[in-house]
Every structure is written in structure tokens, then in C-alpha cells.
Amino acid sequence: METKWLEDFVSLAETRSFSRSAVLRHVTQPAFSRRIQALEAWAGVDLVDRSSYPTRLTPAGELLHAQALEILGALQSARHLVRSHQGDSADVIEFAVPHTLAFTFFPHWLMDLQAHFGPLKSRLTALNVHDAAMRLSEGGCDLLIAYHHPSQPLQLNPERYDMLVLGRETLAPFSCADARGRAVYTLPGDKGRHIPFLNYAPGAYLARLVDLILKE
């Protein structure tokens, strides 16, 4: 059993909607449904009454929901307690950054930051966008650096978190070249000719943006 299954379940109990919780948890709805099913398989009982609308929990689900809140709260308290014993933790800035930005943007940005403000102690944790956002909301880091697009906004309370634009990226297609250096494929292409492309991993933040563009 994974703690993220409990977090998914708590979200579903609050929203009563698989689609809404999938958005809040930054995963596709099929992936979210599979995780709820995995939790039910672990528990050995149905936790969600799928015959009702909006979605509601079964009696067993209500019981597990109460226990899940206690378990997640206890884990959060334990983490804060353990971190409080780390002597130099107060001097370290914790960053949560998606994998792509951790390798492309963050190193140069941090060097520029230190050039202006002097040396600073930092710790970087590379995660997917969903887990990075969760790390911030759970108090596991000081700063989150992530992609943001109006069509796929991060579900963070603007009254609680300030946002600053650090840069802009252009999402563009690139083709392999032939022997003469010309693009093998051109867009929009021919209606009867399928253009193969290498996409991001399913469920990744940028993969969802690409999917939206392809549907337009």
C-alpha cells in the first residue's frame, strides 16, 4: 500500500468526483481510478459506491477515510519532528523541481541567484509536477519551481502561495533531418499520412499540454 493511495482517497472523499480529484492530484482520470481500485484491492472491500452520483463512500470507505486522515496527519507530524533534529536545516532552502527543469533550468538559475546574493545552502528534490506541488502543499519544501500554463494550472491556493514568473518556454515540434539537412516531416502534414512523434511519458505535465495542442 502506498501513502499516495490514501491521499487520493481523501481527495475523492472531499470532492466526490473522480474527474475533479484527478485534476487536483495532477494525474489522468484512468490513472486516478486505478489507484483507488488498488487501494480497494488492498483493503479487500469496496470503498466507493459507484452507483450513486455524485460519488459517495461506502460505510467501509467512511471508516477508512477517518483512519486515513489520522494516518496522514501522523506521518506529517513525524516528518516535521525528524526534520527538527537536523541541526543546519534552518539554513537550507529546500527546492522541489520537476525532473526536466531540475536538469535544464535550475542549475543556471541557482548560479545566477548566488551571483547576486552570495553563497546559499540549498537542497534540490527532483519530482514529477504532481509530487512537487504536493511537496510544497504538505510543507516539505520552501520553494516550488514548475511549469505553468492556463490550460493546465497548478491547483494551489493563490491566497496561500505567491507565484513569480521566472522564465518562459516555447513548446515546439522538431523533425529529424535527411541527408541534405532538410526536415523529414513538416506540419500540419498530409491528411492521409501519419506523422510519428516521440511524446512525453503518459501523465506527465508536458504530455498533457501536447495532447491538448494535438486536439486543437
Description:
The protein has 216 residues and is mainly α. A three-stranded parallel beta sheet has the order 4-3-5. It has a two-stranded antiparallel ribbon with strand order 1-2. The protein has helices at residues 3-15, 18-24, 29-43, 59-84, 99-104, 106-117, 129-137, 205-215; strands at 48-49, 56-57, 92-98, 121-127, 143-144.
Low-pLDDT sequence parts: none
Q: What is the straight-line distance between the termini? A: 39 Å
Q: Percent helix among the residues?
A: 40-55%
How is the main sheet built?
A: 3 strands, parallel
Q: Please write the CATH class name of the largest domain.
A: Alpha Beta
Strand content: 5-15%
| CATH fold type of the largest domain | D-Maltodextrin-Binding Protein, domain 2
Structural class: mainly alpha
What name goes with the CATH superfamily of the largest domain?
Periplasmic binding protein-like II
What is the residue-averaged pLDDT? 84
How large is the count of helical segments? 8
Topology (elements, then pairings):
Elements: H1 3-15, H2 18-24, H3 29-43, E1 48-49, E2 56-57, H4 59-84, E3 92-98, H5 99-104, H6 106-117, E4 121-127, H7 129-137, E5 143-144, H8 205-215
Helix pairs in contact: 1-2, 1-3, 1-4, 2-3
Write a compact overview of the structure shown.
By secondary structure, the chain is mainly alpha-helical. Helix 1 packs across helix 2, helix 1 crosses helix 3 and helix 2 crosses helix 3.
